[in-house]
Amino acid sequence: MKRLILMIAALVSCFSMSVSAQDTMPPAPYAYRQLDDPALEAKAQDLMETLRCLKCQSQSIADSDAPMAGDMRHQVRLRIAAGESPDAIRGWLMERYGDYVSYKPEISASTWPLFAVPMILVLLAGVILLRRLRNST
Amino acid sequence: MNWRLWIPLALFAGFLALSAYQLNQPKDEFVESRMVGRQLPYFDLAPAMPNQPGLASAQFTDGTPRLLNVFASWCLPCIAEAPQLERLQREGAEIVGVAIRDRPADVARFLAQNGNPYSAIGSDDLSALQLELGSSGVPETFVIDGKGMIRYQHIGDIRAGDVPMLLGKLREARQ
Amino acid sequence: MIAEIGLAALWLAAALAALQLVAGALAVRGGAGSEIAALIRPAAVVQGALASVSFVMLLWVFAVTDLSVKLVAANSHSMKPMVFKLAGAWGNHEGSMLLWVTVMALAGGLIALVERRLPERTMHATLAAQGFVGLGFYAFLLLSSNPFERLALPAAEGMGLNPLLQDIGLAFHPPTLYFGYVGLSIAFSFAVGALITRQVTPEFARAMRPWVLGAWVFLTLGITAGSYWAYYELGWGGWWFWDPVENASLMPWLAATALLHSAGVLAARDALRAWTIMLGVVAFSMSMMGTFLVRSGILTSVHAFAVDPERGTFILALLALYIGGALLLFALRAGTISEGERFSVTSREGALVFNNVMLSAILAIVLMGTLYPLLTEAFDTRVSVGPPYFNPVGAIFVVPMLIVMAVGPLLRWRRDSFERIGREAALVAAIILAALVLVSIIGDVAILPLLSLALAAALAVGSLLPLKGRNLRLLPIATWGMVIAHFGIAVALFGMASERAFSKERLAAVMPGEAAQVGPWTVTLEAVEPVAGPNWTAIEGRMSARYRDGDPTTIAPQARSFWTPPQETTESALITRWNGQLYAVMGDQAAGGRWQVRLWWKPFVTFIWYGGMLVALGGVLALIGRVLSDLKRRSVTRRIAERKAETP
User: Domain of life, per the record (chain A) (predicted)?
Assistant: First the structure.
């Protein structure tokens, strides 16, 4: 029975932005406020879409109502406004949370296959097509 | 026999092995901080409640190892770990707190109900220090040595069984 | 009593699946007399009937809310509206697995009833395979997920009165995908049957094709609906997240799309034999793997699901048995199946082979990207793979595929030349170039949306070119299907690119009475009022939205707080115009009596889902066309046979 309740709870939670204990503080100033300069805001938005919300199940901080995601958006917007580059901000977070925080894998000891495999696939596709099409007619 | 025809089966066997292994692994949702082994970042937090000092990185370089406990009054596991923090304090650990996204009145009420093991509590309204520490939730507890270096991160609430381990980490940090 | 009938029918159906397997295996080995072989088809038909009985009984106990049945007590409630009582039957693990085997058994029964083109031995092998696969899922149901389990004491009331779950989309979206997943089991069984008897013929492809088409239509609809649901429900305007659960539905679709086209080549030209077999195995394998990944909970997803490692182990064992078995058979047998007819590079087959290879590469990328975090976790490193990976890496293969797709249908079978379609190819190239230049002039658009806009324009025109110079009234229905499906891809691609390139976002904190601008819209927050629902209260923002100088339309997005269980959701409000959607979300109260509102103007975003529906419509037309021409062919052969019999 307990398992069934868990199941229902799990199913319900797919609707929820935020479950259970929640703070009552107002969101960070730049959690729900855009930067005045549209170019900077666009830069911040592009970056936020590629950063993972640490408290949620596979959502970017740009798609989440979790307070911590709001605090991260605040940090991103402030840093962009202060002139930091998106890559530097991503680096700052990755220094603290590792590759997990970024949806944009960068080539490293733990991610190189993600880049090797597409290259192998390109070669493989080329070889398959060449062989198949040369053998033909 | 054409060896290439066996590739799909080999790949699938790899998938099976991986899945079978992962199915039997406890699923941990923790994101470990990469700051362990590194110096505390600079911070200077205002007091989280009246009558208790705030928290600044400068306080960590006096040679005393400390536990830095990230908590909040709205966090349920924090209530669960409160007795263990008190026990740690009785055993001689110095504990400082960081209250995440919290109001002074709520912090005061929380400590009045659950005990106050903290020698200082900083207020982190924007999760700024939390992000600096690479912490991804509440509660979390960091072991900081006397030179301000982060030596260990404990994720989640402290259970009774974790107390000797944390005391051990503090002793290690003393050396 | 009803539940016991359901359970008994399920056991009997399982026994018949076993009979189907044993009799089929004996018949294929030739060790059986005709009596045993004669059992196979009836066994499949009766199995389908019994599984249906079982499912109907489950619907029954849900309809009457029999609270002595554990599943009903856990998932239903006497006060629910009837449609949600019935939907509750499959809105849980056990019920959905029963739906899964029922669809599988019905499909198996149907091929046993109607499929007469294939050699009888291949049919025996196919039905044996279908019985074998079914048997595993019956075992899963009966041994670890019995939907008819009784409670020792009937519950006083059910626990399933959660209005959150009473959502018509949520009720019908999963079964739609299921029909797709399970429909592919027929392709799988045909592939295994053909491997066993080594009879891979155009007839085999023709027999398989309607099933692949049907499954593909359901998958297309399921993915389209799921994407719109996420867009509407999650409150941030995103419509695809490359989330594991989404990928789990996309992978079978990619495999089925490739299979559809290679089966077309096999049916028309007797080429690509081993390749088609492989895809037949892969497509259903992707369905099962997707189900495993979603159900076992080894991947985390935004669309949370019931998680149970014990059941995960069972499904994994089934995967090992079926996919492993089929791939082993493939490795042993495929070498003895010749590739069939040859064709030239510049031919319809050539283009289809190219796109098949591209689709397979995309499938490989999605599969690897989905599983990769699982792999690194085994080495204690956590990584995230998301849109910034899938989009550009996928594009490496999607872009060439779309280009070939725009001109491929113009090529003739077997042998053709670029000179013959030179003018059309030049037209497509010119459109791509023109669109690239035009869009670059209009605005600062990132490379991927820019390429997508250009390719969408070229594909929209290219997909209609096969109609040129043809008598539209005489055009085969299946050709219409292809044209519409390809055009639908162009439409969807245009929607995706436009959403990416031209969306406007506005986060504002406004006082009641104040207005905010987003793109061409002026949205005024008229009033903020509390609204009470059955188990929630909401803050409703009444807004009047005006497009340029048009008349204002009133919308009312809500921020809802539920108390059982406590959680907050956003109910977005949409205004749909022909050229896009206004998407409004109500946020929290901000300082000084202001309210947070989130507004988006998403030009042509609806084209994503219109396109998806067109693709599905194309699939339906192709299916109708194929079935009609099969029927016609059958009646012609019968008439010829009759005439032969008449003339002595």
Answer: Bacteria
